[in-house]
Amino acid sequence: MGSPAKRIVVAINPNASFGRTRHVGPTVVTALKAGGHDVVPLSAPDFDGLVRVARDALRLQTDAFVVVGGDGMVNLGVDLVGGTDVPLGIIPAGTGNDFASGLGLPSDTEAALAVLLEHLSSPDGVRRVDAAVVSGLDGPDRWFAGALSAGFDARVNERANAMRRPKGASRYVIALVAELVRLRARRYRLTIDGEPWEVDSVLLAVANNGRIGGGMRIAPDASLDDGLLDVFVVAPVGRGRFMRLFPKVFSGTHAGLDVVEFRRGRVITLDAEGITAFADGEPFGPLPLTVTLHPGALRVLA
To answer: Which of 19, 96, 113, 198 lies at a C-alpha separation of 20 to 30 Å from 267?
Structure first.
């Protein structure tokens, strides 16, 4: 006998109704129904609308919440099921897919579906990973699972999100080059597990997952289940050295440079003038903010 049918809520990126990934959402829904599950497919004209309908759908007993899209959709899922018993399934279909990669999920849709179906049918199919809560926002606290950017990287993310072309991870590279003309260090006031730290930096991030921006390995030693956040800081450098440093981020070899520093902690407070933080590629709000890691707070089908 097969495993009993599960009620699975599937949220599909509202921007995926066109382009090369438009078929992924319907493919996922069809495959889950063919597996004998009770599938609740969700769509909406925009991201905020999708959040609302997903929250309503999750008020009923749910065995899994599956998101179809990139890191923004993962963040939607993490924010809705982080700290609950509902496991999150991910079918990567976005620009970067950094969190899915950190989990070891394949980027190919059929392969990712096979992993999802296998884990749905297995009694040991759920893995626990860490997730973080951001407080101090102009609104409710929010969860994230990947990385929070609070420096030059955040400004690059903001520019990349506003770009319509090109499609794919190359947007981040183009946005980075465009932002270089404004490169300057900021003074940050941080507290890491109660210890104050002031630092001048051009690039600063708080990482749970080690990757951002479509493959930049900002924190190559970060782990999704070690109970710690990795604070990544790049000291003030000129544009020329920054451009020479940047390619090393994709391989993680920047970690040994003298201008790069890492610290670890569970509760991180960040403050600086004129900085808006992004987490999982989504705008969260201006500093100051506090990031608190919750070990094992996210259940994933991976």
So the answer is: 96
